[in-house]
Amino acid sequence: MRDLLSELISLQERLAAMQASLNLPARQHEIAALEHKAADPDLWNDQREAQQTLQRLTRLKAELESWSSLEQQLTGLAELLELADAEADDSLRTELAAELDTARVTLESRELALLLNGKYDDRDAFLSIQAGMGGTDAQDWAEMMLRMYTRWAEAHAYTATLVDVSAGDEAGIKSATLELRGPNAYGYSKAETGVHRLIRLSPFNSAHTRQTSFARVEVMPEVDDAPEVQINPDDIRMDVFRAGGHGGQGVNTTDSAVRITHIPTGLVVVCQNERSQLQNRETALRVLRGRLLERELQRQREERLRLRGDYQQANFGSQMRTYYLHPYTLVKDHRTDVETSDVQSVLDGNLDAFIEAYLRLSLGATSEPNGVTGVTGAKE
User: Is the pTM of this model over 0.85?
Assistant: First the structure.
């Protein structure tokens, strides 16, 4: 029992240290200010500002409630441990050991969230998927990835909105962009940036031969106020056209879809999710800001790596993760060597072990990543 009590005391000390670093009184003050602002009926004259205010208020309240809940959980465990020790109840000890392990996993997850202190880590995000080499198989792979990230978002109570999708020639999709809204959406999802490779027996040829397919993921923070990004209206060209694909009755009857081209960089953003041309234009501009900001952030990261002497040029062949469906089942992240044989679980959105391992590596954390069944983090 002493080993459990020692671990519990350690968790309580770690929790106290994290709560101290959060400056909870300041967050309570911000909540009060946001509640006062939300009560002002004039706030709704600006719909976007009103939504952002309520989202921030909801997130802060949920955050404080989660810290309070974890503190109460550890306090309750301390009382139960004393009871189990006094009664020498082995079955209760086993149950408490499992609950303590769950509390530890929750605490480690909160520690990781605190490490996401980048300038834009707490922002919402745009996640784009682009089919690469592999023909129809690659387009089918891109659609599988769209489902995977949608499932991941749902598991974390994120709102995932399909901003744009381009259907494949025979199957799948050529590209798609998801808007992810929720706490630290960019901080977490940025770990998925890079080239994803799928190896399987192709369902799209009569010989059913082995096929390697590629898709690229790009993640951008959603920002309106980034000083790094200044868009000159003269530098963009906007084209409107009739939306295609799904969208409900009437979606294809008006020129509501918008294509924005940023002339200096050649970046092109398409949005056809909304029925209103104005709404599509605003969304497309947000995606463009995010892409321009991510490009600038990437330039800064590469410059820091050059100064350290360990910069390597990224290219389409340098995949960050491989998903094997043949001749065996395995998902392996080549950046961290985290892997699992439960491919279906990963394709169903169970990405946390990969994301956390990469974030801890990139943030220089020393803690081990939270695992999932079948996952190892050992180097080969």
Answer: no
